Amino acid sequence: MIRLFVALELPEPVRDRLIGLGGGVPGARWTERENLHLTVRFIGEVENGVVPDIDAALAAVSAPGFELVLDGVGQFGSGAKSRVLWAGVERNDALVHLNQKVESALVRAGLPREERRYSPHVTLARLRSAPAERVGRFIQDRGLFRAGPIPIDHFTLFESRTGNGGPVYDPLKDYPLG
Ligand code: ATP
Ligand code: MG
């Protein structure tokens, strides 16, 4: 089995800015600089034999390149149940279009449909019993964060592995956008 997801790579200067947002929240496990990305479509565990079908499906996706703006920060969950701190993405029809193109290509390749609504974000930290007050202050203090516009001319199939010090994401292949 292999664990896969489709994502956009972020340029080094943008990742530097995202790393600069971190800190000040007890119980937060911050995303490593090299791991910062924007998921387009999570795939999950598949048999290795299916990878060529997934590759062919992704290679057949035709969508335009676009620009992306990161905008603000927020959380998934709330209060004591806060699980993730993220950087948001300014409303982006081209990104939603790409997500839909990838989704239908993967479903045609035989993968189960993603039932959850696409919610574009860059994961900044995983939280474990972080004090709600500190999480709230983190979000408030960084409300004006913006990065971009970031030109996006390809998307990438990643393998996700479990390393000793946390997850490791290996880019397997890039797919150009028109
Ligand atoms: P770990 O699960 O080990 O804490 P991780 O969540 O970063 O690490 P994966 O679970 O392999 O690693 O996820 C890879 C990427 O896909 C991450 O960006 C993650 O947020 C995203 N992702 C994971 N599960 C889903 C899901 N069910 N729906 C949408 N995106 C997901
Ligand atoms: Mg996960």
How do you describe this structure in short?
By secondary structure, the chain is α+β, with helices and mostly antiparallel strands.
Explain this structure.
It is built from four helices and nine strands. With 178 residues, the chain is of the alpha+beta class. The protein has one domain: Cyclic phosphodiesterase (Cyclic Phosphodiesterase, Chain: A), CATH 3.90.1140.10. The strands form two sheets. Strands 2-6-5-4-7 form a five-stranded antiparallel sheet. A four-stranded antiparallel sheet has the order 3-1-8-9, with helices on one face. Bound molecules: adenosine-5'-triphosphate and magnesium ion. Residues 3, 5, 39, 42, 116, 123, 160, 162, 167 line the site of adenosine-5'-triphosphate.
Give the structural class. alpha+beta
The shape is: globular
**E-strand count:** 9
| Biggest sheet overview | 5 strands, antiparallel
Task: Outline the fold blueprint.
Elements: E1 2-9, H1 12-21, E2 28-30, E3 37-46, H2 51-59, E4 66-76, E5 84-89, H3 93-108, E6 121-127, H4 132-141, E7 146-152, E8 154-163, E9 166-176
Antiparallel strand pairs: 1-3, 1-8, 2-6, 4-5, 4-7, 5-6, 8-9
The structure holds adenosine-5'-triphosphate and magnesium ion.
Adenosine-5'-triphosphate (ATP) is lined by residues 3, 5, 39, 42, 116, 123, 160, 162, 167.
Features:
5-stranded antiparallel β-sheet; binds adenosine-5'-triphosphate; 178 residues; single chain; binds magnesium ion; alpha+beta
